[in-house]
Amino acid sequence: MIEKGVFPGALNMAVDSLMAEWAVKMNAVLFRFYGWERPTVSLGRFQKKGGINVPDWIDVVRRPSGGRALLHHREITYCLAVPRKVDAGKLSVLEFHRLVHSLIRDALVKAGVPAELSSERRGNTMLCFDAPSRYEIVLNGVKVVGSAQFRTAESIVEHGSIVLKQDVELLKTIFGDGIPPLKGILDLYDVDVKTLEESILAQFEKVFGPSKKIQLDSSMLKESRKRSSLFEVRRR
Length: 236
Fold this sequence. Notes:
- The structure is a single chain.
- A seven-stranded mixed β-sheet has the order 1-2-6-10-9-8-7.
- By secondary structure, the protein is an alpha+beta fold.
- The protein has a single domain (2-234), classed as 2-Layer Sandwich (BirA Bifunctional Protein, domain 2).
- The chain has helices at 9-26, 93-110, 168-175, 185-188, 193-208, 218-228, and strands spanning 2-7, 30-36, 40-43, 59-62, 70-72, 75-83, 116-117, 137-139, 142-151, 155-163, 232-234.
- Helix content is 32%, strand content 25%.
- Helix 1 (9-26) crosses helix 6 and helix 2 (93-110) crosses helix 5.
């Protein structure tokens, strides 16, 4: 497990992209939680920039993964990188997605949050949380976890957002008035965030084995900073 850090959005995306390479070099499954230096909108790798109105005080980045736009604000953000040679690395896109979300769902249920995996459905706005698609995590039909995946020849990476509180007015400013009523986990349930993170990690350890904490050392951070410009769309 890479120790939790708080970084600018483009640096976070660079670290996530490099985890695909580091997992192979280390011959290890890598996992991290991380925070955002300031509120940030991330666009999917192939998503067009038009159609959203992001205030000047919010950063904009492009993810190495696909999917629709996310506002990273009051959330738990995670990234998992798995070498293809391990069992989970042989799963299809949908199977891997189901595995990751099943583990997070189980952690939420243990924390007293009656989360479920969704059946297939899709929203029609630029916003990732507009509606769940197959195997995403919902509370009373409302999507509370959004994730995206990218693959290389040697690894699979999935990263995502577990929303703690939704700022609906800010979402309307960015994505328009057509978004549905959205809630975060802490809008509905009293959950200790640190305990939830520990529970999520424990669920991942059931599949991938005991974790060992490592730090982003100076060489890893240097490599990440060099790559971060690839993901920066706009910085405040």
